[in-house]
Amino acid sequence: MLFKMIQVQTISLVPNGPNKLITQGPKNLIKPMQVGDTTISININDEYTIDLGQTVKYKGNIPYKINAIQEITKGYELVVAPKSKASLFLLPILGTRHDDFFYHTLFCNAFIALEDEPNCLALLYRFSGKGEFLRFEQKLRQLSSFKRMEDPSPYFTLFVFNIPTEYLEDYQNFCLGKYSKLSATLKDKIFQFHQADANSVLGQILYKSTKRRLRMQESLGMQIDEDAELLSVPNLEQEVYRKEIYV
Description:
The chain is of the alpha+beta class. The chain is 24% helix and 30% strand. β13 and β14 form a beta hairpin.
């Protein structure tokens, strides 16, 4: 007896870091709905729809609140939030290696303020009951700048810190988008934390690279003053923690 092999085409959602799910499977099974240039939902295999603002639970219990849907080469990204600029430039105040901070696995974002609490540094994490994360939590509590810890939901943990006195001017310059004015001490910590150097994108921003400025001029089709900063000013929508974005 001959058996005919039947291939069932399916779409699955898999995490790509703590802030993003991506689709895996035949892209032609996904139908987007758009308003202007914004994708507001995707329909998967005519079986179910994912809308902006909807919370999708990976493996039934890990929530991802979808705030953006972006088309990629092989499918779609369902995005909670992009990494903030504070994650690049201010988080290194607290440590020396991004691996020590679960940067690519549990770390969601860093913020320059809470809605009702300005002038602080806050870190949002996906909660983990594993021993290595609980030990990490204790290390954060021992930092002199540690202020408090709170749980916005059973799935997230928020750590709040004071800005160390020696970095207050750096904090103010960051908020104004004056990245090149950050102290040499903080610049070195940024390089060490992100395993970068002066030739990296971060280095070109921190030291106003002529190469980056000329590339930006060509891309934007406009002249950029030699004294201008080479990255946009932080967007408070992304840099201030708002619970409803994540929870």
